[in-house]
Design goal:
Layout (H helix, E strand, L loop, with lengths): L2 H8 L4 H13 L5 H18 L7 H12 L1 H24 L1
Helix pairs in contact: 3-5, 4-5
């Protein structure tokens, strides 16, 4: 997540929450991009399961991820998220 996006998120935290998050962030090291992608993917899966919203629009999600992660990471994650949907549509078209 970029600095601007992280700052906006942290603005919504209490002092205690901010301290806990920043302490945890300071202890992180050696995180691989695959691990980060998996965490984000699981977050969105959990979000869909536990909320009344059936998921964000593809365009909104794409734009948000590109701003937070950059094009390369976002593209891979979006392919993981929407790959099954695209495959299913392609199979229907083959019929």
């Amino acid at each position: 997540m970029g600095e601007d996006a992280a700052a906006q998120v942290l603005r919504h935290f209490s002092r205690d929450e901010t301290q806990r998050v920043t302490t945890a962030m300071a202890k992180l090291s050696g995180i691989k991009s695959d691990s980060a992608k998996n965490v984000i993917q699981h977050f969105f899966e959990d979000f869909r399961q536990h909320s009344g919203i059936r998921g964000a629009s593809k365009e909104y999600l794409s734009n948000t991820l590109r701003k937070a992660l950059g094009n390369d990471l976002a593209k891979g994650l979006l392919n993981n998220l929407y790959g099954d949907e695209i495959r299913n549509n392609m199979q229907r078209l083959q019929w």
